[in-house]
Each structure stands twice: as structure tokens, then as C-alpha cells.
Amino acid sequence: MLETIVTALLPIVVTLLLGYFAGLRHDFSQDQASVLNRMVMLYALPLLLFTGILSTPLSEISKSMDVFLWISVGMVGGFILVFLISRFIFKSDSKVAALRAIAIAGPAVPFVGTPVLGVLFPIDADLAIAAGSILMNLIQVPLALVFLVGNGGTAGEKKSPLQIAFGSIKNAVLQPVVWAPILAFVLLLIGLDMPKFLKGSFMLLGQATGGVALFAVGAVLFAQKVSVSREVIINVLSKNIVLPAIILCAMFLLGLPAADNGLVSVTLAIPTASIAVIFAVEYKTAEQEMASTLFWSTILSVITMGGFIWITG
């Protein structure tokens, strides 16, 4: 078990530290790291997901519908629950509540999922990564933008929450990380398979996803101003432990397969996605809190994800 945990998590630590060291030496700035992230999101990850799903037997995908359902419960249900608690119990501003919701319920599946889930769950990893990416881009991001943008448009233009949501969904659907796995699933349904020579061609860049993304995250973490506050502690504990633990307990009580329990809980225990920091900076809301949440969630995830891997066997 210890060997499995080390095999899955040590590459994350090493690559993050290399990225952090590159930032420390000023070899890579935050802007340059953003360019690397853009390459991952527009090219490497879509190719990886497209190839992985199209190479998976349809029978395996059918068996994984429970995984998609429970990841949906964790990410969508978790988003709504965190927003309501932050807004009405902690009396936070709706913008801050939306940022906390996406920070806690939005795991960095495209970046951390590939090196971790690919080692632990080689058959179902691509499906879990695709599910997380689609749910974040089609549901979480539009919901967050409704509250972040509010009723104000650019150049004096007023937009309703419905217009904001539909505009965000439209933009999300155009992103390769969303339509590539959907297209692969449709092609799989109609019986098409991927030739080996095409698979090798697509995977050459696709396999770079995990390493490049983690290196970029390390460089970004160096550039952030990190602090520790009550809000940051609550965010990190909720993201890394509380939310995945709640879903794991629910799945265990319902008697779902141990493999599904492990895949879903480890997926949800993946640290905060950088979209929370991007939105915080763009809308000038809770910037230090989101940056600190991303930093501590990522650093401590090596311990907390290891715990969930050990618990679920």
C-alpha cells in the first residue's frame, strides 16, 4: 500500500518542487506558466481525453456511470451547499461565496488527475478526468460567473443572470477540453475505433499533460502571496477532507463497489483548481484568500490524498 501511495504521489511532489524552483530562479514567471496551462487546456489534455475515452471499451464506460453520478453529486451538490453555507450562515458576499464554492467543490482534475488517477485507476481514469472537466466547465463556471458578474455588463451593458449563464455555457462548449471527450463518447457509441497509429500520434502530446500542468502550478504557487487565516483553513479542510469524506461515507453506506469509492473520493480530494484564483484576480475579490487556498490545498493534498488512497485500499 505504501508503495502504491508513493508511486502515485511522489511525481506530484517532485514536479511541483521543480516548478517552484523554476519560479524561485525566475526561469518562469506567472505569465509564462499561464502559457503552459493554456497549451495543456487547449491541446494536450483534450488529446489525452479524446484518445483515452475512444480507446476504452463501451462496456467499461457503462460500468462507470455510478462514478460519473457520484462525481456530479460531489462537484455540483458540493458547489451549491458550500455557496449556501458561506452566503447565509457565514454571511459572506455572494461573490466571495461563489469563489469559495468553486474552490472547495472544484478539484484540479485536468492537472493533478492525470498523474494520480492514471496510476491508481488506469482503466477509469480518463472517464473521471473527463467528467470532472465537463462538470466544471459546463456547470460550476457558469454558476460562479452568475454571481461574480452580477447584473453589470461591459461598456454600460446590462445582462441578466440567465444571459450570463447561457453565455458562459456557450463559451464552455467551445472549449476543446469539453467537446473533445463528448465527441469521443459519441464516436464510441456509433462503433468507431481509433487506429493504433492515430493513438500514438495523439498521445505524444497528450502524455505531457500531467507533467507540464504540475510544473506550471509550481511556478504559479511561488508567485502567489500566501497567508493563513480562519477562512483559508476552513476552505482547505473542506476541500481536501470534508467534502470527499462525506461522499465516501455516502457511497460506503449505499454498498457501492470499493473501486468506485476509491476513484470518486480520490478525485474529489484532488486540490483546488486554479480557476478560483483566476476568477478572484479578474473580479478583484478575495484574491489573497483564493491564492492561499490554492497553495495550501495543493501542498497538503499529498498527505490528504494519500490518506484517502490508504482508506479505500
- N-to-C terminal Cα separation, in Å? 7 Å
Identify low-pLDDT runs. Answer: 151-156
Radius of gyration: 19 Å
| Overall SS class | mainly alpha
CATH architecture level-2 label: Up-down Bundle
Main location: membrane
Organism: Oxalobacter formigenes OXCC13
Transmembrane segments: 6-23, 35-55, 67-90, 97-121, 127-151, 172-192, 204-224, 236-256, 262-281, 293-311
Membrane topology: Multi-pass membrane protein
Present the secondary structure layout:
Blueprint (H helix, E strand, L loop, with lengths): L1 H23 L5 H25 L3 H6 L1 H25 L4 H12 L3 H12 L4 H25 L11 H13 L2 H14 L6 H11 L2 H15 L6 H24 L4 H12 L5 H8 L4 H26 L1
How would you portray this structure in words?
Its main location: membrane. This is Transporter, auxin efflux carrier (AEC) family protein. Pfam families: Mem_trans. The chain contains 15 helices and no strands. It has helices spanning 2-24, 30-54, 58-63, 65-89, 94-105, 109-120, 125-149, 161-173, 176-189, 196-206, 209-223, 230-253, 258-269, 275-282, 287-312. Helices cover 80% and strands 0% of the residues. The chain has one domain: Na+/H+ antiporter like fold (Up-down Bundle), CATH 1.20.1530. The chain is mainly alpha-helical and 313 residues long.
